[in-house]
Amino acid sequence: MKRFIWGLLLVLFSSGALKSAIRSGDYTIAGFRKTDRPYPQKSSGIIRTETDSILQELQNVVPVKPGQVLMRKKFEGEYRIYKGELDTALFSRVPPMYYVFTIPGWARLSDIVKYRFYRSPTDKPGTDEDIVYFDGERIYVRQFSRIFYFRNNSWFSLEGQPVLPRGAIELTSNPSGADVIINGEQSGLKTPCTIDRMLPGTYVFELMQENYHFFRKSVRIIPDSTIKSSFELISDMDTVYITGEVPYGLLVLPQPPNDTPFILDTIKTRDLKIRLFPGDVRLRWDGGSVYHSVDTILSIPEGKVMYFDYLFKRRYGVLRIVVSPPDAEVCFQNGACMIGEQVMETPSGVYTIDSYRHGFRGIKKEISVIPDTINTCYIDLQLVPDRDGDGFLDSLDKCPDEYGLHDGCPKQKLSDALSSKKEEIQAFLRNDQFTIGVTLLGLITRIPTKKHFANFLSTFSSGKIGGINNYRGLTFFNTLQMMYRGLFCSVELGQWTAGIHYERSDTMHLATKTNEYLVIYDSVFNIEPALFIPSTGVSLGFHYNWSWLNVIYSIGYQWEDIILDQIYNTADGSFTRITFDNDWWFHQLHAEADMHIGDFFAPSIYCRFKFPFGPTKRTRWHTMQAGLQLKVTPSMLKKRNSK
Questions:
Q1: For residue range 253-277, what is the model confidence (pLDDT) as tens digits?
Q2: pLDDT, tens digit, for every residue of 67-106?
Q3: Sheet containing 193-198: which strands, arranged edge to edge?
Q4: 8-state DSSP, 525
Q5: What is the rounded distance in angstroms from the CA atom of residue 205 to the CA atom of residue 217?
């Protein structure tokens, strides 16, 4: 029905019912006004800037790189243009806040930005959307999945999607190991590599390697596709000549990371290939507060190509975050969350800091990190005056401090509680970094679920505890686990080298379906029967952090054997080894207490319980393990090494 109504409206508008009252010029923008009036970044939706807390106006529409965006804002009937970076994090929210529309094939960015967009066909041109965002290929509008524009005396509509399109590229080079620079910015990657989740558009890729000239190539990333691109690097030992008799040389410059032009002597240029007369020339480039500036003298040879092999370097500052209360959680720019005061070295620019603590109002702040300076950010969380949501201040009704949150106090509304918890979980999933954990030293205790097998096992262990036997003893480096965005997986190796020995003076009779065996202990003849329990367990699940406490649930499968060694085979009179298969499923509950003493690693004390279920051939096990482990966050280590 809704599509029919829209179609009927389009027919009415296109058939001339309202053509007498409107003109195409009323639905387009003649020009943009520049007032040099700053626009606060915090009020600007999906657009943000790296260097300031405000957005600056543009006089005209300018080309944008992938990841950059233009914001068209209407002020009292006049339109202004701002340029910044696209904040992709907002597109992960549910329900969606913004919709993405593809620019029609007939239009370029400079064309489509002059068209007004509406929620429905109308004869009132002034009711268009106040804020619309554009990049080289897409239009972004808040909350509406269908927009309309008027062209050639007819109404047209665009259908939007709530997700950003993505593409990928595979880069290879000869030789390999070259640094990858994207649009002038270091990516931290080396060839060969694959870069995923890239916004569609045309990128400038440059490869730099010691003793080789940099190589530049423009590549268009296509949505839902992987582009393959290879580079052939030229050695510094090779000279590139310009064919023909020419009285000039050719200077090839790298792609700068921003729009600042190069200055050759006194002439500004944005060209990356420049013809110059032979001789010395002064090259300058202003990196501002974000990059180190360039000021050098180059000697241009006649009839040759000269490469200015330069890697633009970021400037760094020190950021100190002081929180009150001191045990509040601090999350830095979608990175890892830490507890309490933080000091870090970080590239200059504008960053977002989130801070949380139970019973306090969360705060999100933006801070500008100035290079070569200690920048201090103070965050003072305010106590929530009515935590139980009963309409009375906690200082008056003494809830929940004295009576508990729901003991004698009105309960919080279910909808409010669910909404608050949903936001808390979404923030955790966004900020949960890829983390690797390895157990260092631990204790293990296992209890069989089958009473018959427990009685049999007691004759071997004789009540002794210790050693590395995968039953009751020690473990060393036996578990590897990984966590990312709330997901959890682990691989556990059951260490069984010591085994469980039979040291009783009596003889035990053991019968299988095919043979009979005797279990005999004789130290004189070195007959020492032993039971081994080798195993490998894999589990998948999810985890959640409350401050320093990490809680995990997973479900897993244990591949396990039960081995009896040096037992007497009555059929042939030999001492042999027999193996029984004993695989089983389990639920696993896992708690970790993290000790945050470093940026990229954190020792923690763990305790995990396994609860078996499903069929098994011999027995299932109730298992408890506790010990010390070390967790490492590679992204934080990478940031530290890049400094």
A1: 998 888 889 999 888 998 888 888 8
A2: 888 999 888 778 888 888 888 877 776 677 889 999 998 9
A3: 193-198, 167-174, 226-232
A4: T
A5: 5
Q: Specify the range with the lowest mean pLDDT, choosing from 165-169, 191-195, 511-515.
A: 511-515
CA quadruple 4, 10, 16, 20: dihedral sign: positive
Q: Are residues 290 and 401 in the same domain?
A: no
pTM over 0.70: no
Query: Two tokens at 574?
Result: 């030999």
Does 45 share its domain with 84?
yes
CATH code assigned at 319: 2.60.40.1120
Domain shared by 221 and 99, yes or no: no
Say how many C-beta atoms besides its own lie within 10 A of residue 453's C-beta: 16
Question: Which residues make beta-bridge pairs with 593?
Answer: 549, 605
**Cα–Cα distance between 262 and 283 in angstroms, integer?**
7
CA distances from 129 to 101, 110, 143, 412, 575 (A): 14, 18, 11, 38, 87
SS3 of 304, please? strand
- Write out the two tokens for 549: 């406490």
Calpha distance 335→427 (Å, rounded)? 11
Task: Say how many CA atoms lie within 13 Å of 377 toward its Cβ.
Answer: 29
Predicted pLDDT of residue 247: 75
Same domain assignment for residues 325 and 441: no
What is the full DSSP assignment across 120-185?
S--S-GGGS-SEEEE-SSEEEEES-SEEEEEETTEEEEEE-BSS---EEEEEEEESS-PEEEETTE
Question: Is residue 387 domain-resident?
Answer: yes
Domain identity same for 300 and 324: no
Residue pair 611/586 in contact (Cβ under 8 Å)? The answer is: yes
DSSP 440-506: EEEEEEEEES-HHHHHHHHHHHTT---SSSSSEEEEES-EEEEEETTEEEEEEEE--SS-EE---SS
Task: Report yes or no on 426 lying in a domain.
Answer: no
The verdict on 452 and 489 lying in the same domain is: yes
**How many residues in the chain?**
643
Instruction: Answer with the one of 411, 426, 451 that is the final residue of a domain.
Output: 411
| In-domain check, residue 478 | yes
Which has more confidence, 622 or 136? 622
Phi first, then psi, for residue 440 (nearest 5°) are: -100, -60
The whole-angstrom separation of Cα 138 and Cα 107 is 11
Of residues 491, 447, 497, the one with CA closest to residue 469: 497
Compute how many other C-beta atoms are within 10 angstroms of the C-beta atom of residue 220. 12
Nearest partner of 220 among 66, 109, 64, judged by Cα: 66
pLDDT digits (tens, 9 = 90+) for 113-172: 999 999 999 888 888 998 999 998 899 998 888 999 999 889 999 999 888 889 999 999
Question: What are residue 607's DSSP bridge partners?
Answer: 591, 626
Q: What Å distances lie between residue 203 and 63, 64, 82, 152, 184, CA to CA? A: 13, 11, 22, 34, 10
Task: Please state the domain count of the chain.
Answer: 5
Is 213 a member of any domain? Answer: yes
Q: Which range marks the domain in which residue 57 is found?
A: 2-159
The closest of 604, 579, 602, 577 to 591, measured between CA atoms, is: 604
- Same-domain status, 519 and 618: yes
Q: Which of 283, 307, 331 is the last residue of a domain?
A: 307
Do 271 and 148 sit in the same domain of this protein? no
